[in-house]
């Protein structure tokens, strides 16, 4: 059952007179209480027991997909089967976003699996993944659609004779215009529209997973332009009008925090912060990615990487890098962390000379600690 | 539940987490979706909907734990009411105290607290007042007069009543204090911040330093968001022929889309020269911190410090945290008699070539040069080479030019001369710097 989101009259009045984004002045406690009251009325439980399904219809999700998002545990298990081990927070985010139909802004250091999360979601929900990589200077023409003037021009040239036929016996300007109108807006149709990722995501009939990658690299103008899509799931195209999403896409925005995103953008999204995983989670991740890894090596490697992250480095080793390192060690047929081998392979997960040097100093101590951690778990 | 929710949100706002109305709606929906039984799940989900930076998340967790600590007590109470048959029906305070029905008392207390509006408490001096009001609302006078009537007598029943009354007082006071820590924190912090912003930087206590740093950070964050948009200004009406042609190659050279000439606004390039002799050192420290916090905005910033002679100190600030850096700078050039003439000579000889027409020079100092040769000619040359020269003087204007102050001699070569000795002054100057830089470009 769908609940239309229109507030009762009283609440509307509050909105129009007192609405302010972070109101500390005009938006008083009393108005706040009134709005909450109206909301409580709006979302009053219809019948005990089935609140969950009746309140939030999943905003354009098909029932099968909603079933896949039925509980947090189920999401975790489903993702684990696909080789993505997510923490409880991540699973909660997917669950809430899926039911509320809100975009998720994923922040965190590079290489903790932000992009992979979107990939896995697409695989789990069996939806196509549409990816938009942001960079400085990205604009509408590359993100949303491009109008093919050249094609339009070419068609007008080719069809000139046909136009003559259509207008053939028309008398006077007015009649010619009427005839042209009868053929509708052939020259302003979607045929001349080259869709780019955002438009594609909106027009995907079964819905899609839309990944807007590294949104912090884009300009402020582009960020503002995203707002309409994120809140209404529609875009306005001057030549055609407004295009609404056939089905709401599941939207992920990722950011490495090279700049603060604006409050307007954050307000429209759920905010998920993905930190580096703790040792048990990282072990699980490595196990899932490289099942053939020896148990000893896994324990020691994770302990070593976790210790390295404790140092003050230019760039901390990420999860993807520790996976790479595990692969390299496996190639070298290592069963345990051997300090010399570690020294030779440091450059797999440390990308700055200074970092390599500062880890090199601590190397033996870390290796010893790693062994201890392994023994303790054995 | 909605009363609790409103209070929770206002406590969050008190902890500097900005919660908009839209986010409130999301949070309500999220809470309805997650249910109230899974505490950790609810925390995670609400944190996602309400707190949107790592800092805010930490604050959120703190407030969540603190706030719902009392609310969980709430649940236990409800369970007890169901269990116990001796719950007094009319909620009469005296009867409840006699029966020692603690669960019922707490319930009555919370109702009374809502009635009185304890969540409006702001200052610690109001604790007693609100405690009394809540007690009165619960009808404690009747009990008091009863206790009085019994006097010292009444045996064990009277003793028990007195104990219950004392217990109740403790509970109410506890509850009021809890509300104060949740709701009043924001107000007292604002008061303190306001005072610090207006007080002279030279007069600050050491214990305020930490907080000052936080304020500086906050101001800088605001300035960054205000100015970080690098606007492209159009030179309206001027066609950029080269770019138009390039853009329309695809259309067979037919000019469909026109390109206009644009200019990108540039960020200012700053050279800050700070006097670090004892009298102005504390102001200089904050200016340098200010400028370094703004590194996102300021494309290129170099700083210099002097008292007897001048050296470049940019490196110290890049490598160290602000406090350590200030210490190091003081060790290098501090504690020497000030000599403006010598210092300007140093600058002129070593760094004049680095000044270009985009540079803004900021000098911070009181221009008290111990009666040495001021060498204003050097300042004049610096002024001619740079785009702007701003002088910030921590002394109030009437003192300029008195005693050994050379301010009058330097004055003609300053594009802007400001009194600057509080954080508010500093903020205004830096804001001004960024704004005019954008306009002028």
Concise structural overview:
The complex is a heterodimer of chains A (378) and B (441). Chain A has 19 helices and nine strands.
Can you lay out the helices and strands and say which pair or pack?
The complex is a heterodimer of chains A (378) and B (441).
Chain A: H1 9-18, H2 29-42, H3 51-55, H4 63-68, H5 72-81, H6 88-100, E1 104-107, H7 114-125, E2 129-133, H8 140-143, E3 145-147, H9 149-158, H10 160-167, H11 172-182, E4 193-195, H12 197-203, E5 209-213, H13 220-232, E6 234-237, E7 241-244, E8 250-255, H14 263-267, E9 270-273, H15 279-289, H16 295-310, H17 319-331, H18 339-349, H19 353-377
Parallel strand pairs in A: 1-8, 1-9, 2-5, 5-8
Antiparallel strand pairs in A: 3-4, 6-7
Chain B: H1 2-14, H2 21-34, H3 39-50, H4 54-83, H5 93-99, H6 102-116, H7 127-138, H8 140-150, H9 155-198, H10 209-227, E1 232-239, H11 241-247, E2 260-264, E3 269-275, H12 281-293, E4 300-306, E5 310-312, H13 314-319, H14 322-333, H15 340-351, E6 359-364, H16 376-385, E7 388-393, H17 407-410, E8 416-419, H18 423-440
Parallel strand pairs in B: 3-4, 3-6, 6-7, 7-8
Antiparallel strand pairs in B: 1-2, 4-5
Helix pairs in contact in B: 1-4, 1-9, 2-3, 3-4, 4-6, 6-7, 7-9, 10-12, 10-18, 12-14, 15-16
What does this structure look like?
The complex is a heterodimer of chains A (378) and B (441). In chain A, the strands form three sheets. In chain A, strands 2-5-8-1-9 form a five-stranded parallel beta sheet, sandwiched between helices. Chain A has a two-stranded antiparallel sheet with strand order 3-4. Chain A is an alpha/beta fold. Chain A starts with 8 loop residues before the first helix and ends with a helix. Chain A has helices spanning 9-18, 29-42, 51-55, 63-68, 72-81, 88-100, 114-125, 140-143, 149-158, 160-167, 172-182, 197-203, 220-232, 263-267, 279-289, 295-310, 319-331, 339-349, 353-377, and strands spanning 104-107, 129-133, 145-147, 193-195, 209-213, 234-237, 241-244, 250-255, 270-273. Chain A contains 19 helices and nine strands. In chain A, a hairpin with a 3-residue loop joins strand 6 and strand 7 (241-244). Chain A folds into four domains: 1-55, no CATH class; 59-144 and 196-275, Rossmann fold; 146-191, no CATH class; 279-376. Chain B is of the alpha/beta class and 441 residues long. Chain B folds into three domains: 2-194, no CATH class; 234-266, no CATH class; 269-440, Rossmann fold. Chain B is built from 18 helices and eight strands. Chain B has helices at residues 2-14, 21-34, 39-50, 54-83, 93-99, 102-116, 127-138, 140-150, 155-198, 209-227, 241-247, 281-293, 314-319, 322-333, 340-351, 376-385, 407-410, 423-440; strands at residues 232-239, 260-264, 269-275, 300-306, 310-312, 359-364, 388-393, 416-419. In chain B, the strands form two sheets. In chain B, strands 5-4-3-6-7-8 form a six-stranded mixed beta sheet. In chain B, strands 1-2 form a two-stranded antiparallel ribbon. In chain B, helix 12 (281-293) links the parallel strand 3 and strand 4. In chain B, helix 1 (2-14) crosses helix 9, helix 3 (39-50) runs antiparallel to helix 4 and helix 7 runs antiparallel to helix 9 (155-198). The model of chain B is unreliable at 71-91 (pLDDT under 50). Chains A and B meet through helix 2, helix 3, helix 6, strand 1 and helix 9 of A and helix 1, helix 2, helix 3 and helix 10 of B.
